[in-house]
Specification:
The complex is a heterodimer. By secondary structure, chain A is α+β, with helices and mostly antiparallel strands. Chain A has nine helices and 20 strands. Chain A folds into two domains: 238 residues, Rossmann fold, CATH 3.40.50.300; 100 residues, RNA polymerase II/Efflux pump adaptor protein, barrel-sandwich hybrid domain (OB fold (Dihydrolipoamide Acetyltransferase, E2P)), CATH 2.40.50. Classes of the chains: A alpha+beta, B mainly alpha. Chain B: Belongs to the binding-protein-dependent transport system permease family. CysTW subfamily.
Chain lengths: 363, 284
Amino acid sequence: MSIRLHNIAKHFGATQALEPLELTINEGELVGLLGPSGSGKTTLLRIIAGLESPDRTCTPSAIYFGERDVTQVHVRDRRIGFVFQHYALFRHMSVYDNVAFGLSVMPRSSRPSSAEIRRRVFRLLEMVKLEHLAKRYPAQLSGGQQQRVSLARALAVEPDVLLLDEPFGALDAKVRQELRRWLRHLHDELNFTSVFVTHDQEEALELSDRVVVMSNGRIEQIDTPDTLYRAPKNRFVFEFLGDVNHLEGHVANGVLTCGDAHVAVELPDGHEELLLRPHEIRLAEAPSPESHLPVTVTAISPVGAEVRVELAADWLEAPWLATVRHADFERLALSRGKRLYAHLRRWHRFESNAASLRSPATS
Amino acid sequence: MKNVAFKRPGSTRVLPGFGLSMGISVLFISLVLLLPMTGLFGQLFELSFSQYWAIITDARIVASYTVTLGAAAVAALINAVFGLLLAWVLVRYEFPGKRLLDALMDLPFALPTAVAGITLATLYAGNGWMGRLLEPLGFQVAYTWVGIALAMAFTSIPFVVRTVQPLLEDLPVEIDEAAMSLGAKDGVAFRRVIMPYLWPSLVTGTGLAFVRSLGEFGAIIFIAGNMPYETEITSYMIFVRLQEYDYAGASAIASVVLFISLVLLLLINVWQGRFVRRLHGGKG
């Protein structure tokens, strides 16, 4: 079932949590709402669920599930499944009763028989691989297990859309990884429309078909993870999606100067700030005619596919983070305190007034 | 090594001060709680069992048990319903004057019970504000068991509110939201999801309110009218015996109240322990 939001805004008292926004989520899509805390992502999710209502403004707002207008529909009749960050399981009920809850509170006329409920609950428990724990109580389960129960409970009522509010936020890194993959498989298998909220860019990029990046109650960009990472629309998106290094200086005659460092750039004269991803910095033992960026290695972390190196220099305000392949690491014989020269493979630059390109608040 | 002298060999307790704090606690309990009780039982031994039995089964006394227990039960039930409602309102909603209402909840604790009693009596007497309105309707409050129940409800309402309130505060709103997102109607969500959390505290609060009502004296005697067999409460009967310098008789009646209260408190504790175990998933 597709989700269509039209002119949705939200105030909490005097603070604006969401600026008027439009969003369409296609049928069968898994969409991540990504943003720092306070960006309005959870509010947006709760509005889709019907747990919050959008502001009443002179221009009407509307929420559609497929062709169904659910703007005025109460959360209990919206046919959604909601998964909470802290599971919100009913702790006085067994796992079985938790999952069966949605079916057992249906009006008598549409409620399945108890044998049918039993069959469906066990099918769901099998799906989340917890059928052997049906008689347990939530307090006896681990966090990951509880979140799986909570997911099974939400799916039991066969919702039109599944909404997840930071579903893995309270779990430790390893379980989070596992559940993430598992949710992706489940989504592909059952093909429901889902929206999840996260502040973890890695999670959003790994899990989603499309990512909605939000900040300060605005949608900054909606794109596939790949496009988002390669072609961020503005500086906020670029900075939020990964580690960023800054190089600030004055450009004159195609050369950016910053203290005793300088690098050739094709930019008009004036004050400029360049942004670099860690993998866009190359380290060498000598400067080149185009680039003279002396740095000192201050920390080395050789974990993972690449070595992460922290670089400092008196012309840098904040230290840089660079990633180096293990082969290069050995060739350069990197060690703490070693003096090297940085070269830029690529750099990014966003207009400082990029904010004006975003949709203004007036409508 | 001075230090060693205070330590029993093999003592490996990390938290300091157990001996001292436990000692003072026991001393305090002995002086404040156990000593008066012992005194009470001491008085009892002046009576033979048949004398004791005759006193506590005297028709007038038995009538007072009925009045006291009945009125306390009614008061406790009223408090259970309205105390739960008050706690709910205080926790779940924001409204102007919320803090004032919250503070008002403790007023029955703070007010001398005799003051409450006199106020209630004047209010509900035939010529009082409320009495003037109610009596023409054939509804008499003062000098009936209704008045007794009312006075009991007044003095014991904080027990219910203050035991339910913290539990309700701990209950995340997500629990309601989860129930609603699963299609539960408000009533169903309340009955199947919220009440099970509140049961233990509600029963404890109601039980405490009931026990408190059994022993209430000051607030009731003014409004009760104290008519033999009709509106005499047990604590009034004790008071009467004391005025007659019949300490043994007073103790005998008091022992009955004490016994009922203790049994009730014990039952509540046992029941609650079992309930809490269930919340944590059976015995495992």
